[in-house]
Amino acid sequence: MSISPSGPLSGADAQAAGEVAQWPLSRVALWIGVGVGALVLASAFRYLLIEPHDMGMACADTGAPAWCDARQAVVMMHIWKIWGWAGLAGGALGLAFGWRPAVWIGFVMSLMGLVLYNADMAAVGLMLTCLRLPRA
Known about the structure:
Blueprint: E1 2-3, H1 11-16, E2 23-24, H2 25-50, H3 53-60, H4 68-79, H5 82-97, H6 100-115, H7 119-132
Antiparallel strand pairs: 1-2
């Protein structure tokens, strides 16, 4: 079974008309799985690592646990808008040059940016990624 984003043409006719080739169901499942995984990871960062008041208070002490460095790195990525910038850059590079790794980076980082407070740039990056996605 395959999903065709291009319409009624298939095979050589679609290629000759410059249309997008059909996607196998396994490829669609891969993109959905990676998207869900990115959203779950971003939600875990947000609701288990960044937002809890107790986590912030534990890391504010002078004798902070070792995992506070990892938490601080995630918080700094939020402050510097790394999620949004990486999603925007990946989406723009993927759209402009068709680089598959850039499309993947744009997709994952944009989804994470939407959850991790960088929705402005991440939304544009996801839009650019989705424009390139049918040909990725």
